[in-house]
Write a structure and sequence with these properties.
Rossmann fold; about 240 residues; five-stranded parallel beta sheet; globular; about 40% helix; two-stranded parallel ribbon
Length: about 240
């Protein structure tokens, strides 16, 4: 009975669609794939790297990374042209300050030019929406953000600022990713899972910018925040969650 209960907990909320590698690789090109990761978490980033590697064997792939600040696009381009060693990248991109999570889990994605993929930097500083910019807002966006902020008190008057700031981040990352893609093959966007859950974040913004299908996947199950209706969540076998 304990075993069955544990399995039920691991498999999570049935309102999510449980997916795996085959489901993602089965998406026909051209398409946009958005992968939500737990920042700095090796299993999630291994899955993302594996997806890029396998897709690049047969298709043109552009990888857009939140983890790389857009000001370092030139560094990525130089690396793709063979002008530097991968060991130089963390220093040249000031990785510890610009991203802050360990380099090792991201290395394969950042260096995915070795797979034949094009790499696009879509990260930028956290902050409010610029005063001279406007951003479209999905309906009920605040509900997703409230779940993400559970346990953190926020005055009601600050909620509007939060909505604008997060929607701006979703929008501008989507904009940078789409600008870096020529519409051929796959555009794979790797961002924090909070920008993917609930289908209110970057996927919603990207779909407004392209005519191709957009598919969003969360790369690992998490108990909190909850699973939203329609989310496609990578949940491997129970045993693989233990080891």
């Amino acid at each position: 009975m304990i075993w069955l209960t544990s399995i039920a907990i691991a498999f999570g909320d049935p309102q999510c669609e449980r997916i795996g590698l085959r489901d993602i690789l089965g998406v026909e090109a051209p398409a946009v794939l958005i992968l939500g990761e737990r920042h700095g978490t090796q299993p999630d980033l291994n899955r993302a790297s594996n997806i890029v590697y396998r897709m690049a064997k047969h298709h043109q792939v552009t990888v857009a990374l939140e983890s790389v600040h857009s000001e370092y696009q030139g560094v990525l381009d130089d690396y793709a042209e063979g002008n530097m060693d991968p060991s130089d990248l963390p220093h040249l991109m000031d990785w510890e300050k610009s991203w802050g999570f360990p380099w090792a889990p991201y290395e394969q994605l950042v260096t995915s030019a070795v797979f034949g993929a094009k790499t696009v930097a879509i990260g930028f500083e956290l902050g409010p929406r610029p005063a001279d910019q406007s951003v479209p807002l999905p309906s009920n966006y605040i509900d997703i953000l409230r779940d993400a902020m559970a346990g953190h008190d926020m005055p009601l008057e600050m909620e509007s600022d939060l909505v604008q700031a997060m929607a701006w981040r979703d929008y501008h990352m989507a904009e940078l990713a789409v600008q870096g893609w020529d519409g051929q093959g796959y555009l794979v966007i790797v961002v924090g899972r909070g920008h993917v859950e609930g289908s209110k974040g970057i996927a919603w913004q990207v779909q407004r910018m392209v005519q191709t299908p957009v598919h969003a996947f969360v790369l690992a199950w998490a108990e909190n925040p909850p699973c939203y209706v329609g989310d496609k969540v990578w949940r491997p076998s129970f045993l693989s969650e233990l080891f």
